[in-house]
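Write out the bound-state structure for alpha-L-fucopyranose.
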Amino acid sequence: MADFNKTAALLLSLILTLVCFSATVTCDQEPLVLFYDKPAVQWVEALPIGNGRLGAMVFGRTANERIQFNEDTFWGGSPYNPVNPKSLAALPQARELVFEGKAEQAQKLIDEKMMAVPPYQAKYQPAGLLKLSFPGHEKATDYRRQLDLNTAVVTVEYKVADVTYKRRIFSTPVDQVTVMQLTADKPGSINFSARFDAVQKKEDLKIEDGCLSLEVYGVGHNKAIGDLRCYSRLKVIAENGDVKLEDNKCTVTGADSAVLLLASATSYVNYNDTSGDPQAKVKRQLDDVAKKPFDGIITDHIQAYQQMFNRVRLDFGTTDAAKLPTDQRLKNFAQNDDPQLAALYFQFGRYLLISCSRPGTQPANLQGLWNKSIDPPWYSKYTVNINTEMNYWPAEPTNLSECHEPLFALIKDISETGSKTAAVNYGAGGWVCHHNTDLWRATGPIDGAFWGFWPTGGAWLCQHLWYHYEYSGDNDFLEKAYPVIKSAAQFFVDTLVEHPKYHWLVTCPSMSPENAMFDRVSTCAGPTMDMQIIRDLFDDCIMASEILDTDPNFRRILREKRDRLAPMQIGSAGQLQEWLKDIDLTVPEPQHRHVSHLYGLFPSSQIRKDTPDLFAAARKSLELRGDGGTGWSKGWKINLWARLQDGDHAYKMLCEQLKFTPADVTSFSAGGGTYPNLFDAHPPFQIDGNFGATSGICEMLMQSYSHYADKKLAGEIYLLPALPTAWPSGSIEGLRARGGFEVDIEWKDGNLKLVRIKSLLGNKLTIRYGNIVIQTQTEKGEVYLYDGELKRPEGG
Ligand code: FUC
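---
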């Protein structure tokens, strides 16, 4: 210990230097493209584009191009609040049954009396299809299609006879349209026709104002038509040549080039109001953008995108493997040395977040923004017992804080709707959300008691409000978020009950998400995850109220209750118990995909190296769970192994995540992986695994925590906590850390070479690398550079 302190002190005096802001870690940017030598046949081979609100999947077919598109407020159903007035009367009996050990009867009672009315939610809908037909393009050569992550533009290029054709397509957040430009290297070669199609009924195809238009209605449960309509228009502008609009088709002949402008909007205003005028919106958007030259549209788009995307650069080095088409690289990943694919996949996650979640849009749902079906898997909702949260794990650390905003807006909405559910269903104050929500911000328990009767979804989401504060130190934000956090805490102040046997405070009834304790029964009291989430929620609320200097009495109540919550327990196999009782080894699915009780290790920080018993127990639980699971389950496990500081196991999980999943595999039982277009395969496609793995790669390279003292946050940064042997040298620039820091790291031969940390808030900082600890008080705006002989100590 003495030696260690001496080393740390020496390092501190030798290497802590204040440098000017221009000092940078050098990092060569590798080409960040997904590319293919064939058009997409299936949807999960097509390439996604999006501007947060509008999304599209580009197939890149030569003769019959297909653009399937979405608008993020287009859902089935209508405003509703599915409270259940019968629930409250059944609550005492349900609790009693659980406490008497009659979980099966409790679950049955909940199914009969306590579920939401109706017990399902709305479905996210596809907006339409744009079909382009290019006569004579069946036999193309020199084909290539690509998605360039540096520009957020998809390009399709090929030759027919001696003409080279090129398409560029993107969804721009600046002009709020999807744009396609068609060019050829010989004048007069652009000949095509365009028409709309939809999976819904198609009577609503028209020609209006010199545009093609399409109107579709959202479909709900049992095919019921909902309130929302989605209206789309296509405007075609050709250079020279002829443009003809007839039979709901636009035909262009002999043009030098053409620009297609696609706009969509719905009648959604907010979760209570569907009186919007999509026609007027779409007309205005198209009128405005049609005045702009194509070069201006694409330049503005790229600039807006790069302003966010370029904040983080990652380099693991490149091998010849990077020369192959992306689907080939994916197939080879586990056997081949292809570190750049991991970097590409990381940046693809950031690309997807920028493309499906921007300020003012809806948050990323189960499929982000991209959905082709009126009946998508799990309705493409917001599943909040892991999936929605996972979508946002990379938002703060990978420097895309504003992408987090749509989630904050959703949390505010469900704090309103959820207060009705709390009052009517539980007779409680505050607000509650169970395991799903939708566009209408429904918060009741759905799908059946086994999956849905879990009252801690809203409390988990509230963590994200606190995370944003930890990274930004934004007191104005905290002031607005505090009432939402406080009200979430209030619900548990009102509903936690004392367990008659253990005398701890517990949730009841609840469950450990979707995991059966025995034969299709999940209903229980005080599962470990609930206790961890509520502990975090109460702590956040206590800290926030201190920072904002408010509510001392409520703070006292929270402290008392927090100290009486059921603690984390270590079971007979040395594992972290998932339930109050030590039953982990006897449950029907000991390797269940949900690893709920490990929430305490990640995303929470209740289990750390300095809680060694729990740390070892969490490791044991993860070992018992195994390395299988769905896409998101594998994504979560990358983060968990990184938190356990086992880089090679985290890397093994990344290989699991990147297991090639053929496009036609949609069965759950196939296990998680990655589709040819790099979309996460649950299977079927579900976007959470993409975001989970992006966060996981970040956690392998840097982890950060915050501590609170004297009304201020202090940051703690672990450098290269889980660097795998597969990435001996590399660099990352622009990560964000808790406590308000921006971090660049460079490493070589497995050892740290250079760290550059910019202090954004002037908070205290602890830096850890292996056994080395450096503590310092930073100054706001200053850059700290640590270099020299920073070697990982033996056993560190
Ligand atoms: C939960 C998970 C499933 C899936 C669905 C959306 O039910 O258990 O694996 O992710 O949500």
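---
Residues 366, 378, 383, 387, 514, 593, 630, 632, 682, 686 surround alpha-L-fucopyranose (CB under 6 Å).
The longest strand covers residues 225-239.
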